[in-house]
UniProtKB/TrEMBL annotation:
The keyword Transmembrane does not apply. This is Anti-sigma regulatory factor (Ser/Thr protein kinase). Residues 1-26 are annotated as: Disordered. The keyword Lipoprotein does not apply. Keywords: Kinase, Serine/threonine-protein kinase, Transferase. Residues 228-338 form the Histidine kinase/HSP90-like ATPase domain.
Length: 341
């Protein structure tokens, strides 16, 4: 039997020490992305305190989608996933359940690999219902800028789509700044006072504000400058150093693919040359590629790309391989840093 919970307001559904790599210290010169005004796409943040409020805001959302015969997916951290699945009961057999701590460990993978993957699979099936919780108290300060940018970019990625993505935020466990940023990345807020438009909605500002210069490594880093002719040597260099830092063989091979894609992008789009650095940090291998190019498309690497597509898959593949991708782009160039374990 489905458990009963005190109701929260329903979601609107529209009928729902080597040499340092040069790092720019000014905002990017590319025009900020234009985020279309509200329309078919609905993207509310659900502010909750404790499990009771969590279930009161999420269970009706799932049940409403199921009653409408709509595709429903839930991608949230494991404990919330278990609680919500138990509360929905047998009807949950028609729901796609995903653990966000695995599927969305790299925030840059969530739009193409979780949200778009599900929505595209059900295109034409009516309004798609998704619960996505990409930010939880266990997220690190290193991960957070990518998380905040992800939440902002959802609005751009799904503009005009008949999709509702409900994003729960733990107001007890998360830093107040995270909650403030959620008001900027979500056009609607659901809280104890009801459902209302966010007076702080400014996703383009969040994308720009989180385009932060990346900190220098705390310890020594292997370094190699490269051009087109040096790509084979660069791949071998990265593999040798990653293996020496203890990266498992399978991941060394995957890192080689990521390095190749990033370096090829530098050669083609970043001025023909670049610099690779590689080091160990908090039990992970960190690899960074810097060049003189500017990434003007904020959704680069976040759109699904068909195998028949010429280009567009390199950064997407990097997001799929890495545990985390951090990026800074600006007038002095672009730095892409990947974390692999």
């Amino acid at each position: 039997m489905t458990q009963q919970h005190p109701p929260l307001p329903r979601v609107r559904t529209l009928d729902v020490m080597p040499a340092q790599t040069p790092v720019p210290e000014t905002p990017p010169v590319a025009d900020p992305p234009e985020f279309p005004p509200g329309g078919l796409f609905v993207h509310p943040a659900l502010f909750y305190a404790g499990e009771q409020e969590y279930l009161a805001g999420t269970v009706p959302f799932v049940e409403e989608g199921l009653r409408a015969g709509a595709p429903v997916a839930v991608s949230v951290p494991g404990p919330q996933l278990a609680a919500l699945r138990a509360a929905v009961g047998p009807a949950g057999e028609r729901v796609t359940w995903l653990d966000m701590t695995r599927e969305g460990r790299n925030p840059g993978r969530i739009i193409p690999g979780v949200l778009r993957a599900f929505a595209d699979r059900h295109a034409g099936a009516g309004r798609v219902h998704i619960i996505g919780e990409p930010i939880w108290p266990g997220r690190t300060a290193t991960e957070y800028p990518a998380c905040a940018q992800h939440e902002a970019l959802i609005n751009l990625a799904f503009a005009g789509r008949e999709v509702t993505i409900l994003c729960p935020y733990d107001t007890v466990g998360l830093d107040p700044q995270v909650i403030a940023d959620a008001r900027a990345t979500h056009p609607e807020i659901i809280d104890r006072d009801g459902t209302h438009a966010s007076d702080g909605y400014a996703p383009a500002r969040v994308v720009a504000d989180q385009n932060l210069p990346l900190p220098e490594p705390a310890g020594p880093a292997a370094l190699m400058d490269f051009d087109r002719d040096a790509l084979p040597e660069l791949r071998a260099f990265a593999c040798r150093h990653a293996a020496g830092l203890g990266l498992p063989p399978r991941r060394v091979g995957e890192l080689e693919l990521a390095v190749n894609e990033l370096a090829a992008n530098s050669v083609v789009h970043g001025g023909g040359t670049g610099r690779l650095r590689l080091w160990a940090e908090n039990g992970q291998v960190v690899c960074e590629v810097a060049d003189r190019g500017l990434i003007a498309d904020p959704l680069a690497g976040r759109r699904p790309a068909a195998m028949s597509t010429n280009g567009g898959r390199g950064l997407l593949m990097v997001h799929h391989i890495a545990d985390l991708v951090r990026m800074h782009t600006g007038p002095a160039g672009t730095v892409v840093r990947i974390f692999v374990s």
